[in-house]
Amino acid sequence: MMAAIVRVDRAVRTTCRKFSRQNRLYSSSNGVEWRESGCCKTIRGKTMRPWLGILAGMIGSCGALLYYLNESSVKAFGELEITLPKYPWAFKGVFSTFDHAALRRGWTVYRTVCRTCHSLQYVRFLDLVDATHTIEEVKQIAAEFEVEDGPDNEGNYYMRPAKLSDKVPSLYPNEEAARAANLGAYPPDLTYITLAHHNGVNYIFSLLTGFMDPPAGIKLEDGQYFNPYFPGGRTSMPPMLYDGMVEYDDGTLATESQMAKDVVEFLFWTANPEHDTRKVMMMKGLGICLILIASLLHMNRRYWSHIRSRRLAYAPNSVSREPQLPRVWHDENGIRGTNKRNTLMKR
Ligand code: HEC
């Protein structure tokens, strides 16, 4: 029953719009009788429109205000900060995945260079399987590390070669030891570092390649290095990457920027290991949604087609139209009758 009412209503609306073009509006209560009215003005869609506009405007301005406050508050902290360049990361596209050869090279850079100071304590060797190396290679890599295990039957802790299920062991047992070895500065764990910084990948790439001599007027303490990308400009991390520092097993030339790019892509992977799967899932989801939306549109057209293709004629009230009876008819006793008026009109 509801559906029928809605249909009549819709037919009326359509016709009303047609007539409003001629500066006159007509409506009907049951879809049959037409009378002049202002029905189009009270249609919900029309009167709601200004309110929707105001709502959208309010949401827009609140968003713009929040964005402005956020941006300006970030800028207020670091006076010496410079704008980060935007690099064309291959994995940033909507449909692009990691370059797994780059991840493999990135592990080499971490293993050879960064691990001397930074831990990667939330990554297990198992995670590397099929992401950077084959399982056989990862087993070999793991065996090169030693982890503490125990207690054994005599209650002693002992060292053993790492297994696939172990986390990548840190060089320092705790933060204090790491600080003591780095003149009081703490080299943070690198697993989630790309997420810990605003614009993480561009920041770390710029940081790694941005070491330079301090400009005039800036004095560095012992063990400090100048890097314009580091907040404040003075960092305790020494410049670590030099051309040819590592040897890649795929023969790629190990320039400073190549190593920085590879290690940053690797660190983005450690922070987002589900990145590739997520994008594949998104593509599947979008595909399903497209099919659903297409069939909904089709259903909608089909459902309303008899209304859209209906033609409504308008007869003004001033022209009186009497009900038309059939010209020849039979009553309940089977007696034949004729419609005199029609007969007359015919003559
Ligand atoms: C000699 C030790 C050492 C090595 C090797 C090293 N770092 Fe660092 N790193 C540090 C120290 C110390 C800090 C802390 C700097 C500070 O707080 O001033 C740091 C900080 C960082 C930070 C954080 C910067 C910030 O703004 O919070 C990142 C990112 C980083 N290092 C990346 C790397 C990468 C990638 C490598 C390998 C290519 C690497 N580091 C190699 C010592 C090292």
Automatic annotation (TrEMBL):
SUPFAM superfamilies noted in UniProt: Cytochrome c (SSF46626), Cytochrome c1 subunit of cytochrome bc1 complex (Ubiquinol-cytochrome c reductase), transmembrane anchor (SSF81496)
Cell compartment(s), UniProt: Mitochondrion inner membrane
Record keyword Heme present: yes
Signal sequence range: none
InterPro entries per the UniProt record, alphabetical: Cyt_c-like_dom_sf, Cyt_c1, Cyt_c1_TM_anchor_C
Transmembrane segments: 51-69
Keyword Ligase included in the entry's annotation: no
Chief site of localization: mitochondrion
A Pfam family matched in the record: Cytochrom_C1
The entry's keywords: Electron transport, Heme, Iron, Membrane, Metal-binding, Mitochondrion, Mitochondrion inner membrane, Respiratory chain, Transmembrane, Transmembrane helix, Transport
Function: Electron carrier protein. The oxidized form of the cytochrome c heme group can accept an electron from the heme group of the cytochrome c1 subunit of cytochrome reductase. Cytochrome c then transfers this electron to the cytochrome oxidase complex, the final protein carrier in the mitochondrial electron-transport chain.
Protein name: Cytochrome c1, heme protein, mitochondrial
Phylogenetic classification of the source organism: Eukaryota, Metazoa, Ecdysozoa, Arthropoda, Hexapoda
